[in-house]
Amino acid sequence: MQLSGAEITLRCLAEEGVDYIFGYPGGAVLYIYDAIFNQDKVKHILVRHEQAAVHAADGYARASGRPGVALVTSGPGVTNAVTGIATAFLDSIPMVIISGQVPTRAIGLDAFQEVDTVGITRPCVKHNFLVKDVAELATTIKKAFYVATTGRPGPVLVDIPKDVSQQLAEYDYPKSVSMRSYNPVLKGHAGQIKKAVQMLLEAKRPMIYAGGGVILGDASPLLTKLVRTLGYPCTNTLMGLGCYPASDPQFVGMLGMHGTYEANLSMQNCDVLLAVGARFDDRVIGNPEHFFQAGRRIIHIDIDPSSISKRVKVDVPIVGNITDVLEEMLRQLAAHEAKPDAPALAAWWKQIDEWRGRDCLRYDRSNTEIIKPQSVIEQLWRVTDGDAYITSDVGQHQMWAAQYYKFDKPRRWINSGGLGTMGFGLPSAMGVQFAFPDDTVACVTGEASIQMCIQELSTCKQYHLPIKIINLNNRYLGMVRQWQELQHGNRHSESYMEALPDFVKLAESYGHVGFRIDRPQDIEPAMREAFALKDRTVFMDFQTDQSENVFPMVPGGKGLTEMLLGSEDL
Amino acid sequence: MNNNRHILSLLLENEAGALSRVAGLFSARAYNIESLTVAPTEDPTMSRMTIVTSGSEDVIEQITKQLNKLIEVVKVFDLNEGRHIERELMLVKVRAEGKDREEIKRTADIFRGRIIDVTDRIYTIELTGTHDKLDAFLEALGSTQILETVRTGASGIGRGEWILRV
User: What is the mean pLDDT of chain A?
Assistant: First the structure.
């Protein structure tokens, strides 16, 4: 049967099981929008800015594990989408972005709304395609989903010129696709796994460091089983939160720049480190020279060979799908006659518990005058029974959410860890809510970040998304101010936000409910009221302590254990 | 860290954009690139690329891994891992007048170069060899006025039975 390129695109998406696409129409995608109009399998969500389309698709993907799909027009549609694409790329999120392009005959002639989309997006996609022949469209879309979702996942862009979306071709969606140049490794090397098991069992001061790869690989249950089988301490990266239950006693908290005292000290002082789906990035290990001062043997499991020995030399690299590797590891552990060194482990736990005794996340909980931002997150955790999907923007509020909301399940913590994109929180929450319409979704944000995609309040209204926005409003670009206090002589250069809108009125003008909360005792009642409004978007504007900073903190360039634990350390 | 010269051989899909992905990777990750040559192979769907780069062993390992990650790259091999041959082609246009003409011709012969174009004032010489040999030839030309040089960058291949193919 002959179909137009636009119809083929929609058929392919339906074939891939796509239920939502997030997009914004424009000239180059008009045939595709016409095809959307003429079918009912794939529902289109009209956002208010292309950046939000990509973030929403991203949030959908992070929460559901299924690839997110965004649709944008050529030129400014694509350039607006780039921030979203780069955000997904840095966090390895499976996504397919379909972009319109000017007609093939106009490419290269500086046509209206023409940009070199493939060129602009090349460094921030896993792969991209320009479809020049409608006959290749279906196969290309199949390849896009295949590449986006296999191996180390990532965003893949398909650029479709307007004439290609109009032309007719025989529709035949391939059942599968293979590419001689793309063969992601699956099984880990059994010999390497054997070495790793041996090394783990010899450990006196073991540590398990798990990151976003565990979540992307849906390997949380296996990781949890491994950690419990061994009885070793486990830390999570910012991207890995929820892959090991935070309320479990073997969890020592997040590590890194704003990690816990016990996590960072365990990381530095362990003798065997098992890294699972984590990449030793600069926010995690601090100053690399300082990190190397302590000798330790490292086992590193990752699906991407280039993540291994990139920043840190490892002793036992294991390239493979985390699920397969952990299954094999558990199998070998069960069969092994040796068991973990119980006396050594007991001494190690004693040491860790001592570090824990510092209670590094303590703050002034008794304050009745001014809202401490940390207490808002702790209340949020209580009011939502620790079971909400929490998205966040970027800055202090993000770190507090990561530190104080105890994530017990994977895919509940949705944040831009790699790129650190302000404006991510609200649109990604929309994507999460579409994936899980009946679940509680809250966006933890600040008065600066929220304004970067505030227009999406309109999308929330159109689709009746009952997202709860927790705005930690300190009238500062808080993290910028914190760094200025620490490293720039307390000169608050352009970090104070004047002329803020009245967020309550703003929310109301979009048709939502808005609360302003000024006093600590009002936090909980306001939240209970807000979360009881099951069918409304509620904007909660918490006026928080302007001077509060995120602790612990490893200042830039310092070693992992050179932490500031509170303002008394400044 | 030693910055050793490495010569990498790649097989990649002969598709528009594959070259810019490779070149973009080198600039984005601040890797050195001394030369890069590429052309289709006997199988027209595939191109063979030779990249001359330098870096510590760690950097070269990352370069190889990152190249392998590019979807259109089919195979990457560091020729330094085995015995190999490399050749570069150079075309040099020199001022050749009076008694210099004989001297330049002799020098070209010594280097097994060929004069491939002649006017009464100019020789154009073709020379193939390693990077070093081409440099040595330019030095040997001494006071001869070099008007133009074109070099292809190195192409490399493994010695003996060692073959890079899909």
Answer: 96
Number of domains within chain B: 2
CATH number, position B64? 3.30.70.260
- CATH number of the structural domain spanning residue A482: 3.40.50.970
Model-level pTM? 0.96
- pLDDT digit string (tens) for A238-263? 999 999 999 999 999 999 999 999 99
Residue B1 and residue B56 in contact, taking contact as beta carbons nearer than 8 Å: yes
Gap between the Cα atoms of A492 and A482, Å rounded: 9
Question: Catalytic site residue A195?
Answer: no
Identify whether A113 is a catalytic site residue.
yes
Distance from CA of B152 to the nearest CA of A (A): 26
pLDDT in tens, B119-159: 999 999 999 999 999 999 999 998 889 999 999 999 999 99
Query: Residue A56: which residues within 8 A CB-CB, separation 6 or more?
Result: A22, A45, A47, A68, A70, A427, A428, A430, A431, A434, A459
Give the tens place of pLDDT for each residue, A178-223: 999 999 878 999 999 999 999 999 999 999 999 999 999 999 999 9
Find chain A residues with C-beta within 8 A of B69's C-beta.
304-306
Q: Which residues of A touch B28 (CB under 8 A)?
A: 123
To which residue do tokens 């790649």 refer? B10
* ipTM here: 0.92
Which of B39, B64, B81 terminates a domain? The answer is B81
| Beta carbons of B66 and A306 less than 8 Å apart | yes
Query: What are the tens digits of pLDDT across the range A263-319?
Result: 999 999 999 999 999 999 999 999 999 998 888 999 999 999 999 989 899 999 999
Chain A residue with minimum CA distance to B66: A306
The C-alpha of B71 sits at a distance from chain A's nearest C-alpha, in angstroms, of: 6
Task: Read off the pLDDT band of B2 (50, 70, 90).
Answer: low
Cβ of residue A265 closer than 8 Å to a chain B Cβ: no
Nearest CA in chain B to A184: B69
The pair of structure tokens assigned to A214 is: 């565990």
Query: In this complex, which of B17, B66, B71 lies closest to A181 when CB atoms are compared?
Result: B71
pLDDT of residue B166: 83
Which is catalytic among the residues A479, A527, A540, A563? A479
Would you call A162 a catalytic residue per the annotation? yes
Q: What share of chain A is helix, strand, coil (3-state, %, to 5)?
A: 40, 20, 40
Q: Which residues of A touch B24 (CB under 8 A)?
A: 122-123
The C-alpha of B75 sits at a distance from chain A's nearest C-alpha, in angstroms, of 8
Same domain, residue pair B53 and B110:
no
Domain end residue (candidates: B35, B60, B81): B81
How close is the nearest chain A Cα to the Cα of B69, in Å?
A: 8
Q: How far apart are the C-alpha atoms of A325 and A334, rounded to whole Å?
A: 14
The CATH number for B150's domain is: 3.30.70.1150
If we measure between CA atoms, which residue out of A322, A296, A8 comes closest to residue A134? A8
- For the segment A55-85, what is each residue's pLDDT rounded down to a tens digit? 999 999 999 999 999 999 999 999 999 999 9
User: What gap in Å lies between CA A55 and CA A83, rounded to an integer?
Assistant: 9
List chain B residues with CB under 8 Å of A126. 71
Give yes or no: residues A408 and A471 share one domain: yes
Q: In angstroms, rounded to a whole number, what is the distance separating the alpha carbons of residues A547 and A533? A: 32
Residues 142-171 of A with CB under 8 A from B: 147
